Amino acid sequence: MTSGATPKPRTRIQARNSETILEAALEVFSTYGFRGATLDQIAEVAGLSKPNLLYYFPSKEAMHQALLTRLLSTWLDPLRDVKASGDPVTEILGYVRRKVELSRDYPRESRLFANEILQGAPRMREAIEGELKTLVDEKSALLQSWMDQGSIARMPPAHLIFSIWALTQHYADFDAQVRAMLGPDHDPFTEAGDYLDTLFRKLLAP
């Protein structure tokens, strides 16, 4: 390809195969972690040959990185949506609700992210120390301003964000344990949303 040439767009079949591979990779990575996952496992779940996998993604690392890049954007959007112009308690409780919904709708992605962090974030360190830290610093400053105005109770703002992460993502990362404790007839996410709304509403009261 000559310098400056525009890459050919992927065909519909290529786009579909790429998505099939990433879906299979997500299933395998979220179950076995990055180290435990193999190309053979991903190929089997995808229903494609291993050489076909490597045609689209040159390595297991490339698949994992593609998933993490997509995941980070999904994970950060609810925090980005916390608006300075809104009512402080409403904005924070809305963020909690959206995080519960993410755990309900994207449990495998949550476990993928948790596995990466538990390994020391070798493939996400740049994003965590860059984009994520910048966003957390920005929202921590907003929380601090609401505390200074007396709109919400005083507490370390970054730790408030950490606690929201921990309490919401628990329902995805420990799904088997949660469901075993509650039994098959309970919807943990409806109960979790209501419980966390009450918990944080009391915590935030000035």
Automatic annotation (TrEMBL):
Keywords: DNA-binding. InterPro entries: Homeodomain-like_sf, HTH-type_TetR-like_transc_reg, HTH_TetR, Tet_transcr_reg_TetR-rel_C_sf, Tscrpt_reg_YcdC_C. GO terms for biological process: negative regulation of DNA-templated transcription. GO terms for molecular function: DNA-binding transcription factor activity; transcription cis-regulatory region binding. Pfam families: TetR_C_3, TetR_N. PROSITE patterns: HTH_TETR_2. Residues 38-57 bind DNA. Residues 15-75 form the HTH tetR-type domain. It comes from the Bacteria. This is TetR family transcriptional regulator. The lineage of its organism: Bacteria, Pseudomonadati, Pseudomonadota, Alphaproteobacteria, Rhodobacterales.
